[in-house]
Structures are given as C-alpha cells and as structure tokens.
Amino acid sequence: MFTEYSALIDSLEGKDIAFDRLYNKHNELDVEIEKMTSKDGFDEVEIDKLKKEKLLLKDEILAYLKSVANK
C-alpha cells in the first residue's frame, strides 16, 4: 500500500500516534475481512461494510501521508 510513501511510512510507524491509529485499524480490518471470507456462509453485508470502512481509512491514510510529506 502506497509504495511511493514507503520510506515515510517506515519513519512514522511507532513514532506518530495518529498515523499508527489509522494504519493499525486498516490492518485489523484487513485481517478481520480475511477471517470472515475464509468461512463458509459469511455475511456479505457485514463484509461490504468492513470493506467500505477500510477504504475510508485508506483515503485518510493517504491524506495524512500527503500532509506530512508536504511539511
């Protein structure tokens, strides 16, 4: 995710609370979606909801990275 910002991401991880919150929540949703979809009879509505939340977080992360990169 965001290969053009990989160095910035590495520098922020564990040092920037706001970034860590967004990044960790995004990763948690990814794991949760993977778990849910690996089971038979998963709830597609719930998974769609989680995917939308994950996409919003991705947008927030990108906006945050851009704001930090432009300082």
What does this structure look like?
The protein is mainly alpha-helical and 71 residues long. The protein has 3 helices and no strands. The protein has helices at 6-12, 17-37, 44-69. The protein starts with 5 loop residues before the first helix and ends with a helix.
Q: What's the short version?
A:
This protein has 71 residues and is mainly alpha-helical. It is built from three helices and no strands.
Name the features:
single chain, 71 residues, mainly alpha, 3 helices, elongated
The fraction of residues in strands falls at under 5%
Tell the overall outline: elongated
SSE string, helices as H and strands as E: HHH
Distance between the termini: 21 Å
Please work out how many helical segments DSSP would assign. 3
What is the residue-averaged pLDDT?
Answer: 95
Poorly predicted runs:
none
Largest sheet data: none
- Measured as a percent range, the helix fraction is over 70%
Secondary structure category: mainly alpha
Count the E strands.
0
